[in-house]
Amino acid sequence: MKVSTTIVKGTIGTTGSDTDTTVGTSAAVETSPLVSANVSGSSARVLIVTAVDAERDAILRGLGDHASDRFDVVAAGVGPTSAAAGTAAALAFASAAASARELAPGFAASVESDAAQASAASWPGPARGTGDGSPAYGLVISAGIGGGFPGRAPVGSLVVADAMVAADLGSQTPDGFLSVDELGFGSSRVAADAELAARLRHELQRAGLAVSGGTAVTVSTATGTAETAAELLRRVPDAAAEGMEGFGVATAAQQFGLPVLELRGISNAVGPRDRDAWRIKDALDALQAASSILREVITS
């Protein structure tokens, strides 16, 4: 797969060839709680990370003309690795730029300031919507389309996750799959900001949109069989949605001490692969509608 990054009017867009970017899947076991989101009524900015341009554009349409007031939207690429790297780069850029501003007034700190500015300059900046190119983020959101588990998240609906779980992070054994938690090598779960997730679901429901909670599983290979879907539910009994980026975004946010959400528009049922049954446009429309409500929740 060839991946390239383009910058248009401050927007970072990552596109790939020889890869299927029409649908994503996501996965994550519980780590230490993140700082609770406190962005409503504050000046803190919100970083939204998608996989592909179509998802980013749907979110920007939903956020509307004033998206730049509070939001930056990054298309970081498909899969947990690209998502984690893109999120971490945007957050590091913001941190370096903020440090440069603090250091610049002091002549004695000129060397450190120049170094910080050089570090910031190496990253082209957060996505379209950036105000001054060096925001202070208070919340990170993984957003896009993905699969829904039948009976829990119907096609065309939304999922605002309670947690992001890396469902295929672990080891196969003769007795079955062992998660990274069971192996003692860390955690495969990051909790979403519970208060903000509940509030967003409530407002989406008030707006007449179908929305579910539950866990969003992150996987590196999208599910294509009934057997794999059943195995994921065995590993993560409360799984509602599947994507490929949520845990990566959440892990990067966690490293910076920031709260995180995952929002998915459901384009297909998790199970046997049937592209004729996918409803990509409906999922993107749902994501756009949800982004409009998200803007109201964050800015109210």
From TrEMBL:
<dbReference type="InterPro" id="IPR035994">
    <property type="entry name" value="Nucleoside_phosphorylase_sf"/>
</dbReference>
<comment type="function">
    <text>Catalyzes the hydrolysis of futalosine (FL) to dehypoxanthine futalosine (DHFL) and hypoxanthine, a step in the biosynthesis of menaquinone (MK, vitamin K2).</text>
</comment>
<protein>
    <recommendedName>
        <fullName>Futalosine hydrolase</fullName>
        <ecNumber>3.2.2.26</ecNumber>
    </recommendedName>
</protein>
<dbReference type="InterPro" id="IPR000845">
    <property type="entry name" value="Nucleoside_phosphorylase_d"/>
</dbReference>
<comment type="pathway">
    <text>Quinol/quinone metabolism; menaquinone biosynthesis.</text>
</comment>
<keyword id="KW-0378">Hydrolase</keyword>
<feature type="domain" description="Nucleoside phosphorylase">
    <location>
        <begin position="139"/>
        <end position="296"/>
    </location>
</feature>
<dbReference type="Pfam" id="PF01048">
    <property type="entry name" value="PNP_UDP_1"/>
</dbReference>
<keyword id="KW-0326">Glycosidase</keyword>
<comment type="similarity">
    <text>Belongs to the PNP/UDP phosphorylase family. Futalosine hydrolase subfamily.</text>
</comment>
<keyword id="KW-0474">Menaquinone biosynthesis</keyword>
<dbReference type="InterPro" id="IPR019963">
    <property type="entry name" value="FL_hydrolase_MqnB"/>
</dbReference>
<dbReference type="GO" id="GO:0016798">
    <property type="term" value="F:hydrolase activity, acting on glycosyl bonds"/>
</dbReference>
